[in-house]
Amino acid sequence: PDRYDLLHKYFRKICHLLADFDYFGQTVTLQVLTQYARTQFLTPFKKKGSEDDEDEDEEDGGFNVKNSKFYSDEDEDEDEGEEEKKKDKPMDPDHRLLIRSATVLLNSADASVICGVTSLMCAIAPLHEARQCAPSLARHMGNYREMQYVVLANVSTLAAKRPAMFRQYFKMFFIYFDDPQFIRELKLDVLANLSSDSTIGPILVELFTYVHHHDPQFVNQAIRTIGRCALTIPDVAEKCLHMLLRLVSTGSQTVVAQSISVIRQLLQRNPKQHISIIKRMAKLLFKVKIPMARTALVWIIGEYREMIPKVAPDALRQLAKSFKEEAVEVKVQILNLAVKLYLTNPSQTKLLFKYVMDLSKNDINFDVRDRARMVRSLFFTKKSGSGDAKADEWKAKTKTTMKRCFLWAKPMPEKESPFKAREPLTLGSLSHLVQHSVSGYEPLPEFPEVAPDPSVREPPRSITPKNSKKRDKTKVKSIDKFYSSDSDDSDSDEDSSDDSDSSTDSDDSDEEEGAKKTKKRPTKKDDEDDDDEDEDSSGTDSSSDDSDDSDSEEENAPKKEKAVSKK
To answer: Which of 26, 56, 261, 417 is exposed most, by the fewest CB atoms within 10 A?
Structure first.
């Protein structure tokens, strides 16, 4: 697969004939040409070859057009500026040929070909040209479930890297009632990646309708997606927080548990403005029975203990009573709460801290026992015979160490996609689909820093010998003879014989030509004169006939008279 030199001679021919291949041939050819282009052409991306850079002017992917003016001069200036930027980085003609040939395949009816073209365009094409793949991928969203899953896997990765490509198609990723679980997960991930100022409104309305679904697992995923959208857009966090509080008061136990865990993440952004919500969460501690929700509530009380100084010690007292019946993760959080309150408010919580330590030391679960022994070794030590100064110094160091461990400021939660493992893998490969590298997987090579010699893709030049001109002339003559008719040959022979005879019989031909010239063709006037003469002649002839008849009658008259007298 590394012998790319075998493709040099046939690269252009393959690009021209790519549309004539069958679906399987096109898919394999696109994979090979992607690897070839990454080794033979320079990077078309900006600054260090970063493929994830987006144009600042197209953050919403052309979806938000409220501030744009129709037929404005500013748009023309921006278009001219973009064209100048494109001209700054000339592209190899063969590189451009490959992109143009692959773009034709975006009209294919096969999903594998579309995925192959998308992988090629995202790997070697500029960002503004790779956006052409979005409509073709969105068109295959109505395909079979298996093909839809493959297409959605590619869309999920692209939406995480380049969300502007699909923002105008975000409604196509809304979930239908008959979608299977694996399709729902991918669609929720795509919606979370496509959330922006222009699309967050319809997306949040759609996500809150999923809360009433009959599948509890899907409901939990929808609530987590709401949290991801709120973390992505801080302006919507307040709205999401109040909508989640509604679910806490009216939803089922699973909905309440997942909502509390999401609220815990949202409170970390600005807890000082949500003291009332923190107090409300502390009151839910005695109503919610799900371990995951109780764990989140205990963490909220311990983390923001200074904002609720009267509520936190009482909450620890209530939790110490039910310590034995709690789940393992809740016990660990109760122990952490006792340590935090002991470090910040020892006068009210010293006895409660010792009581919780004793309960944890004798617990059934070994995780709780190990945590209690670790804390006990730091706080309680045997008295030594050394002076008080050393003991005080050791206590001070212990407290600072405990404060670093338990009271350290927690980092802000980050939005993490459940399909994050796919991002570094090659788009459209089997490893990308299963989210880990399989045997035989090869990542895309890096673009070369120096452009290779483009003349290797030129066709070989033919070597012409010295006598080639003579041979060409004979070939032309033979071709002319082949395409000439027999009549032409006979005419040429007759012409040659006539030429030879014309030299000998020049005198006779001159006389004949002179005689022929003397004979003139009759004109129209001559014809009219002839017609008049004929008419005159006919008139004279008729008159002469009349006169002859009259004369003959006069001669015969006396003869008749004589005959009558005789009778």
So the answer is: 56
